[in-house]
Amino acid sequence: MALRISPWIRWWPMAPMKACLGACLAFSLNMVFMPQVQAKETLVWLLRELPPLTIFEGAQRDQGVVDKTLALLIRNLPQYDHVIQRVNRARALQMLHEPGLRCDPTLLWSAERARFIVFSTPSVVTYSNGLIIRPADRQRFTPFMENGEVDLDAVLHSGKLKVGIVAERSYGPSIDRILRRSPADVLSPHYGNDAVTSLMQMEQRGRLQALIGYLIEAHYLARQRGMPADDFSFIPIKGVEKYQFNHVGCSDNADGQQAISRINPVLETLRQNTLAQFYASWLDHDSRDHYLEDAKTFFNDKAAAAVPAR
């Protein structure tokens, strides 16, 4: 039986037909051998509410110091898919123990944390933690004060005063050392998501005589929760530096170490001026002027400016 060929095909010029077949073959081969686009690695940012560093609610939501810093980090790290997850401090530390790439942009360095977290170069510099008390209770701390500072170790070992803390929060090396050797029954740790507010309310009700924290955080939360900010005052703690250095901390694995190597150059640029301005905008006029003057020398010391030793 003879094969019948359509006149349309029979009379198609051979040169254009060969060109079409060649193009189709080349396209097919390109599709077969084309390199596959690599999916971006996911970087999970662990955030807890810590005003004025991070703010989750209200008119100033996402306008905290670290909120703005994180936005700039994300913009400068396009090689990652960024996911923000809100967790409390205890859960964040637990997740940094787990496999995967997770980072926390609001960490204080400690030797204990450095066992499972790789830390960035210092980023945001803040005023240090101190004792937050009610002015009406100030006389109860007078026996433990000298030169305007309170001896926290003596307060805790007196057994007379109850002090609130946020569970798993680091307050800096000096305070952490005091807390580790203090009697357990004088501390009231809180594990919740709104821990500082809860501790402030306990203080108002007389269940606590003090809590350890940042005055700027306490005043912000008081205003947000309808408590008089003047109900809370600050006493510096003996032996604690005026300022403390915050860091980004990532899971201590190959991915976390690579992420920190990419984060450090960004922070080293931002901290020269931008980050100090972010924090200063939350301070009162006098504190702002002093802070910005001191900020000029924060990173003059090579040791202070460097990545913490492992």
CATH topology call of the largest domain? D-Maltodextrin-Binding Protein, domain 2
CATH class of the largest domain: Alpha Beta
Return the domain count.
Answer: 2
**Can you write the helix and strand succession as a string?**
HHEHEHEEEEHEEHEHEHEHEEHHHH
User: What is the strand tally?
Assistant: 13
Helix content: 25-40%
The fraction of residues in strands falls at 15-25%
Query: Can you tell me the overall shape?
Result: globular
Q: What's the CATH superfamily of the largest domain, by name?
A: Periplasmic binding protein-like II
CATH architecture of the largest domain: 3-Layer(aba) Sandwich
Query: Which blocks of ≥5 consecutive residues have pLDDT under 50?
Result: 1-21
Classification by helices and strands? alpha/beta
Number of helical elements? 13
Biggest sheet record: 6 strands, mixed
Question: Span between N and C termini?
Answer: 85 Å
What does this entry show, briefly?
The protein has helices at residues 7-10, 14-33, 65-75, 89-97, 138-141, 152-158, 173-180, 195-204, 215-224, 254-270, 274-280, 285-295, 302-305, and strands spanning 41-47, 80-86, 102-108, 117-119, 125-127, 130-133, 145-146, 149-150, 163-166, 187-190, 210-213, 233-235, 243-251.
